[in-house]
Amino acid sequence: MTRSGSDIEKRIYLDFNASSPLVPEVVEAMQPFLAEHYGNPSCDHWAGTSARSAVERARSQVAGLLGCSPEEIVLTSGGSESNNQALKGAFFASRHKGEHIVASAVEHPAVLKPLEFLERLGAKVTLVPVDRQGRVDPESVRRALTPRTILVSVMHANNEVGTVQPISEISAIARRAGALMHTDAAQTVGKIPTRVDDLGVDLLSVAGHKLHGPKGIGALYVRRGTKIEPLVHGAGHEQGRRAGTENALLAVGLGAACEVAARWLGMPTLRALRDRFEQELKALLGDTISVNGAEAERLPNTSSVNFVGQVGADVLARLAGVAASTGSACHAGSVEISPVLAAMGVAPREAMGAVRFSLGRTTTWEDLQAVLAMLGERGSVHGNALEEHWERIHRARTEAASACQQRRSSTSVDLILGAGVGRDARVIDIGGGASRLADALLDRGFERVTVLDIASTALERAKRRTGARAGMVTWVAADVTTWAPRSSFDVWHDRAVFHFLVRKEDRQAYRAAMKAALKIGAQAVIGTIAAGGPDRCSGLPVIRYEPASLASELGPDFRLVESVHEDHLTRAGTTQRFQFSRFLRV
Ligand SMILES: Cc1ncc(COP(=O)(O)O)c(C=O)c1O
């Protein structure tokens, strides 16, 4: 597969925890309600009954996903209202029993702010801490309970980090103590199972737009028999629990989203994509990143990454066309350390660089690969960092293990000879520090061989290996994109260096260096490219080329004349197919 630089600039949406697009099934279900079904669901005539049956069907679809009965669902305007209704409603209905509420320190503002409000009305609130992974210890909830505790509210999963809380254990403790149990499940409904009986909750909040439903609608599950005071008083809508004419358009959207979500639960594909993304990021940036909540049970789609020592907003600014968040989505752009990460005890130097990537149904590996390539562009794998990367690779492996396992260096030698050059030809092997082409050329009597590599460790080893003959080779330790050649060459042998140049500027700089070095009588360019295979090589993102696309990178001065395949053994013991292409000057 070939990718051009412009692909990297395409729009990539990785902010599904902030909001998610309507899926086609939802759009289709909503369409007739924009114009045709305008009746008031409370009216008994034909216009009202068709709207009412749509609202009731939607209620059943929501109930189906939560495993409750439709009468236990109150339609609201979204996650924030559901949380407000649950907390304030429970407090107002139970204040004669007590005024103490327990919640976690990592709740969404849609829980923390209503709690602050209730404190002004006399509530006593205890926020239980979380551990380094963002987990609430059920024991700390037990310790926080008092005889006056009326409500425990712990979110099902955190919106920033994705940590999933042990809700069933916490609810068992709360309910045994006679307190109501609420969970803000805005981030879990539609992503992981959220059956109310499994969770053991009395109240559960749903936000439509987080599960590919419309914005402005949500639901509150209220277990049968649970007493909560309504916030909006009026006519008897929603069984007297929330006044206001139901919005059939949004309700059918939410219902359809819940039905679709039931088929999608668990997100196994997304989990695999997320895990691969994190592994590759680690391979690319090493200790300069850390992943929040990596050791906890997490939402399958969420990756909260700290770019250590950087500011999250700066990292995002470099990711052109990528929609992701620093800190909470509701405070995008803020460089303040997120209260969630602070509560987890993440060091400020790490937390400042936090970026949340949240994947969704339309996310592809290509999207994530493009992000990896962009993250690899600056500071981390270029200039000194690129040198450090290859030095690290070479130092970590023995010479034998790091030598490119080309089975026959004669493939390259044959192509070089096929270019019609004699043994006095000036040949340069770019990125050839760990290859044995120099040895093979010396064996054939070539006398003017240059090996260029960014890692001096690889060159030192090659020098030691070639022993007395090392003096016959010119060894150049340099980054080829910034290298100013002092002599010209007849044959330029590229050892897949092009693959690593994901930035257009680097490819241009490389081409300029090559042109300058080939200026006198140069005959051929031999390009080694990996055919197919993984999207990364030695921990770096790569661009895949076909011989034809490499030809277009080389420009009009060179014409593709021949391509041969050779299988190399990889370190993992598998076979990687390489393609050697010979380009002649036109
Ligand atoms: C955990 C959590 N709760 C509540 C909300 C608020 O939901 P809504 O936007 O529907 O009001 C959000 C949205 O960011 C959330 O992530």
What share of residues are in beta strands? Answer: 15-25%
Q: What best-fitting shape do the alpha-carbon axes yield? A: elongated
Q: Report Rg.
A: 31 Å
Sequence stretches where pLDDT stays below 50 over 5 or more residues: 1-8, 328-334, 378-382
Count the E strands. Answer: 21
Euclidean distance between termini CA atoms: 27 Å
Heterogens: pyridoxal-5'-phosphate
Structural class: alpha/beta
What would you give as the CATH superfamily of the largest domain?
Type I PLP-dependent aspartate aminotransferase-like (Major domain)
Structural account:
The chain has 586 residues and is an alpha/beta fold. The chain has three domains: 2-16 and 267-377, Aspartate Aminotransferase, domain 1 (Alpha-Beta Complex), CATH 3.90.1150; 24-261, 3-Layer(aba) Sandwich (Aspartate Aminotransferase, domain 2); 384-585, Rossmann fold (3-Layer(aba) Sandwich). The strands form five sheets. The protein has a seven-stranded mixed beta sheet, with helices on both faces. A seven-stranded mixed beta sheet has the order 15-14-13-16-17-21-20. A three-stranded antiparallel beta sheet has the order 9-10-12. Strand 5, helix 8 (167-176) and strand 6 form a beta-alpha-beta unit. The radius of gyration is 31 Å and the shape is elongated. The two termini are 27 Å apart. Residues 1-8, 328-334 and 378-382 have low confidence and may be disordered.
